[in-house]
Design goal:
heterodimer, A: about 325 residues, 8-stranded mixed beta sheet, 4-stranded antiparallel beta sheet, 13 helices, B: about 325 residues, alpha/beta
Chain lengths: ~325, ~325
């Protein structure tokens, strides 16, 4: 995996939160790479560790309670988990942009939008105020905000939800990032506005050629936008595949179950929804067995004994499931 | 609409709910938010009417107004043969057992200091004359009905997961054997795999107790699953109402078309075939709706008349109601 071509390469990341009630193993041995110019989708339910993984990469988690126990995050030849805070700060908001879920809480209400877009330009690109404002205007135009000139002087509350998310994207794009991490950027938006933002993202990615990590719980969004997909469950990557392969030929029982639980507005309407019984795991200890075992209808004895590794099942497709290991299936009889 | 073969349990006519805006030093009334502005619909006994729309379109307000959780600005509401639109709150008390509500956020709608048993028992305390033992039995029965372990009756809401909390909320709504339940985004706060559990439970309960639902949601695919008929709201008005299959297969109103096309398709092979209608701009403010049709500022099929006259909400095809000038008698350039 660690070829020189990856824009970002994550190996064996482990993040643990220490709480009063004990430890929570939020991210367990997560490895993936991101190729230049691709859009990598990350899906999972709440608590599956998708946001924590991305926050860990950039050192955005407060420590304590968070603790990164192991792993390597290679970006431009440097391990981001080991660099000094100064370097990390220059990477964040510079070469790696971040768009958060809720545009209202991530913009500062007392500064104008223009000021907030200029800030990274002045800090990271060494522009003066005037240059920064001129560039801010270009950025607002790029993300499709009309009357950019006037809107620069407006405050976040004067923008609608969709417009605010566009502003957030403009800030994240300000310094020509190589990598953009978008954490549920459309979850707080309505479907018609979401459709606008998705179109915009696809357009910008083609135009600017950056690599994007798109975190969401919405499989529909992933289907429409991603090139490759990581499915997370219980703090682990349980399946990884190109998007068409994932939807057409899911290998992990969790992925198949998840695909069956969602009703669609097109195609056949199911009489009754398929459900996944039970609850997600608590993750209070490092996993010693498959995290999906309790809810899996194809569980075997081996699933309770050890945690399945990610097994290659096809070209660029792997699943962390013993069902894909002929030896284990044979053992189970 | 009036000569429906089935009996409507709920009849809503020209429902209006306006909230005043006060401003200035003297808090003078300077305008109003027309959250619900002239809405007509029936809910037929035993059916599920889905009410969909984007945030701010007034769907939740509409649901709450129908149960008279607000004092409405105007219009008529009839539930189970009784007019409740203009009845004072004090006289509504004996109607309350018939009509109940399941709220969106199970975290906020359950009192953290009450045990599950106390929460489900409260409506029984208020409205029935059962003795303590009978009430306890009834609570245990309700917990069974919604799939909660009755051993957990003495626990507090924080000890339950989101899906289980929503079950507590549903048990409470069922306590008084209601006929009509307004479900206000009951699954919006839940994870996908848990959503399906709650939706299946609602369907089971409907069959078992003969319930009638008004199911408010912004999730169109879930509404397609659960609803018998669907109403689409935009900026305080219903723009279209039809049988589920008709609405999803052959929507009439341009807003419904755009809304349906915007729903992301989880199947990539189908996704490519979806013709997306990307609406420009944002929803106008409900305190200052545009002249004419509310949708005229974003409508891809807008005509001159749309900016002048408000279209009438009427039955265009049997069972399919819409408010759009494209379907008025004067045959204009309809581009279907």
């Amino acid at each position: 995996m660690p070829d020189g071509g990856a824009a970002l390469d994550v190996q064996g990341l482990k993040t643990v939160f220490r709480t009063r009630g004990g430890e929570v193993h939020a991210v367990n041995d997560v490895s993936f790479d991101l190729k230049p110019g691709e859009l990598l989708g990350v899906v999972g339910e709440s608590g599956s560790g998708k946001s924590v993984t991305m926050m860990s990469l950039l050192g955005l988690l407060p420590s304590p309670p968070a603790e990164i126990r192991a792993g390597k995050v290679m970006f431009e030849g440097k391990n981001l988990l080991e660099v000094d805070p100064e370097t990390l700060r220059s990477v964040r908001g510079g070469k790696i942009g971040f768009v958060f879920q809720d545009p209202m809480t991530s913009l500062n209400p007392v500064f104008t939008v223009g000021y907030q877009i200029s800030e990274p330009l002045i800090k990271h690109m060494g522009m003066n105020k005037k240059q920064a404002m001129a560039r801010s205007k270009e950025l607002l135009e790029l993300v499709g905000i009309p009357d950019a000139d006037q809107r620069l002087m407006d405050y976040p509350h004067q923008f609608s939800g969709g417009m605010r998310q566009r502003v957030m994207i403009a800030i994240a794009l300000a310094c020509d990032p190589k990598v953009l991490i978008a954490d549920e950027p459309t979850t707080a938006l309505d479907v018609t506005i979401q459709a606008q933002i998705l179109e915009l993202m696809k357009e910008l990615r083609d135009k600017l050629g950056m690599a994007v990590i798109w975190i969401t719980h919405d499989l529909g969004v992933i289907a429409g936008i991603a090139d490759r997909v990581l499915v997370m469950y219980g703090g682990q990557i349980v399946e990884h595949a190109p998007v068409r392969e994932l939807f057409g030929n899911p290998k992990h029982p969790y992925t198949s179950a998840l695909l069956k639980t969602i009703p669609t507005i097109r195609g056949e309407r199911a009489k009754r929804l398929t459900i996944i019984e039970g609850q997600p795991p608590l993750m209070t200890a490092a996993p010693t067995s498959c995290p999906f075992r309790d809810r899996c209808d194809r569980a075997m004895p081996v699933c309770a004994q050890k945690n399945p590794p990610r097994i290659e099942v096809g070209n660029g497709h792997d699943a962390a499931c013993f069902l894909e290991d002929p030896l284990e299936v044979a053992n189970a009889g | 609409m009036l000569d429906d073969p089935q009996k409507p349990l709920v009849r809503v006519r020209d429902l209006k709910m306006h909230f005043p805006i006060h401003a200035g030093l003297l808090r003078r009334r300077v305008g109003e938010v027309k959250a619900v502005d002239g809405v007509n619909f029936d809910v037929i006994e035993g059916e599920t009417l889905g009410l969909v729309g984007e945030s701010g379109c007034g769907k939740s307000t509409c649901g709450r107004a129908v149960l008279r959780l607000y004092n409405i600005t105007g219009g008529e509401i009839e539930i189970d043969g009784r007019e409740i639109g203009n009845t004072p709150q004090s006289q509504l008390r004996d109607m309350r057992p018939t009509m109940q509500m399941v709220f969106q956020d199970p975290q906020a709608s359950l009192n953290p200091r009450m045990t599950v048993e106390a929460i489900i028992k409260e409506p029984l305390d208020e409205h029935t004359t059962l003795n303590e033992a009978e009430k306890r039995d009834k609570v245990a029965e309700l917990m069974d009905a919604v799939g909660l372990n009755r051993k957990f009756a003495k626990r507090y809401p924080h000890a339950f997961s989101g899906g289980q909390r929503q079950r507590i909320g549903i048990a409470r709504a069922l306590a008084l054997n209601p006929k009509f339940i307004v479900c206000d985004e009951p699954i919006a706060a839940l994870d996908v795999s848990i959503q399906a559990q709650v939706v299946n439970l609602l369907e089971d309960l409907q069959e078992k107790f003969g319930l009638t639902y008004l199911f408010i949601s912004h999730d169109l695919s879930m509404v397609r699953h659960i609803a018998t008929r669907v109403a689409v709201m935009y900026l305080g008005k219903i723009v279209e109402l039809a049988e589920r299959e008709t609405l999803f297969a052959k929507p009439l109103h341009p807003y419904t078309e755009a809304l349906l096309s915007a729903v992301p398709e989880p199947d990539p092979s189908l996704a490519a075939a979806v013709e997306r209608i990307i609406l420009q701009g944002d929803v106008p403010s409900p305190s200052n709706p545009p002249q004419g049709c509310n949708f005229c500022t974003r409508c891809p099929k807008v005509m001159d008349i749309c900016k002048i006259d408000e279209p009438e909400y009427r039955e265009v095809k049997p069972g399919q109601f819409t408010a759009c000038h494209l379907y008025n008698e004067t045959p204009t350039a309809t581009s279907e």
